[in-house]
Design goal:
The chain is α+β, with helices and mostly antiparallel strands. The chain folds into two domains: 125 residues, Phosphorylase Kinase, domain 1, CATH 3.30.200; 157 residues. 44% of the residues lie in helices and 13% in strands. It is built from ten helices and eight strands. A five-stranded antiparallel sheet has the order 1-2-3-5-4, sandwiched between helices. It has a three-stranded antiparallel sheet with strand order 6-7-8. A hairpin with a 5-residue loop joins strand 4 and strand 5. Helix 3 crosses helix 6 and helix 5 runs parallel beside helix 8. The longest helix is centred in the C-terminal third of the chain and has 23 residues. The N terminus and C terminus are likely disordered.
């Protein structure tokens, strides 16, 4: 049955972040099938999987392996992201900005944007690469525990392969947390799955490179979240790996990635930005490695 998306979205936006009901999810899956041009003969039964929802996302829906869809020639599996409410800037980011930024487009550590638009029924959507792996949030949750190799690999990918290159390119994270990364068994070991959080700084970078207003707004939030993100990864390490010597080794290798310099050299002049970077860097140093317990001393 067709959905009046304008009325549906108006009602759904009032409810803000809510999980779709079973009947609603069926409508969302039908919309995803329409967007992907999934043959009617393949829509019977459980042809798709719902991956979740969010504050601005009605649903994330991916067809199961083997299902025919219009992107299958280049991507065996994709994810349909159905947006909640107006999504003009999201659509622009996925359909235009993403492909014009070398640091995002064709970068294996960033979930790729395949396309975006508005469906025949009025639903705003983006088509994303499907990333096989375990959400970092689940990997860090009890009773799971990381060994030193896993913690080190995740941190190096986060800092050296994702954080530093994107910041050097002028992009700024607005909402960088463990929910926005997937841990993979193959290389790369860590993939960022919410590149659209940088959409405002990406648009600015393409249109007015000399203007840093949007990026400045994002810096405080992003720099504040970095110590929390690193601390979350380290706190999930097995107790046997929490010896001060092991943690100091991780800290030393982190700083060899030139993180301090990158935080201090944000690519612009201005004492305000430099002071913000220095203050957050000091916070990062203090919080990265907690004081060693007496029995952990060398």
């Amino acid at each position: 049955m067709a959905v009046d998306w304008r009325l549906y979205l108006a009602k759904k936006t009032e409810l803000n972040k809510t999980m779709p009901l079973a009947a609603e999810l069926e409508h969302l899956e039908n919309t995803a099938a329409e967007i992907l041009d999934v043959p009617t003969s393949e829509r019977d039964g459980e042809w798709a999987v719902s991956l979740g929802y969010g504050m601005r996302t009605l649903a994330l829906i991916t067809p199961k392996a083997g299902v025919t869809h219009r992107f299958a020639a280049d991507h065996e599996r994709v994810v349909v992201k159905l947006f909640r409410g107006p999504a003009k800037d999201f659509i622009r980011f996925h359909s235009h900005d993403f492909s014009n930024l070398y640091i995002l487009n064709q970068n294996s550590v960033v979930q790729q944007s395949v396309g975006a638009g508005v469906s025949r029924s009025g639903a705003s959507y983006a088509i994303l690469q499907y990333v096989e792996g375990v959400p970092l949030r689940s990997l860090l949750a009890p009773p799971n525990a990381l060994n030193l190799f896993q913690a080190h690999a995740i941190l190096m990918d986060l800092i050296a392969k994702i954080w530093i290159p994107t910041w050097d390119a002028g992009l700024r994270f607005k909402d960088c947390h463990v929910g926005n990364f997937i841990s993979c068994d193959t290389s790369p070991r860590l993939v960022m799955i919410d590149a659209e959080q940088m959409r405002k700084s990406a648009t600015e970078l393409l249109t007015t490179p000399a203007c840093w207003d949007q990026r400045t707004k994002h810096e405080s939030s992003a720099l504040t979240r970095l110590p929390n993100l690193v601390a979350s990864i380290l706190s999930a390490a097995e107790p046997t790996w929490k010896h001060a010597t092991c943690l100091r080794k991780i800290r030393m290798e982190l700083f060899e990635t030139a993180l301090p310099q990158r935080l201090c050299e944000l690519g612009r002049s201005g004492s305000g930005g430099t002071k913000a970077a220095m203050d957050t860097l000091q916070c990062f140093i203090e919080r990265l490695i907690p004081p060693a317990a007496p029995d952990e001393a060398d």
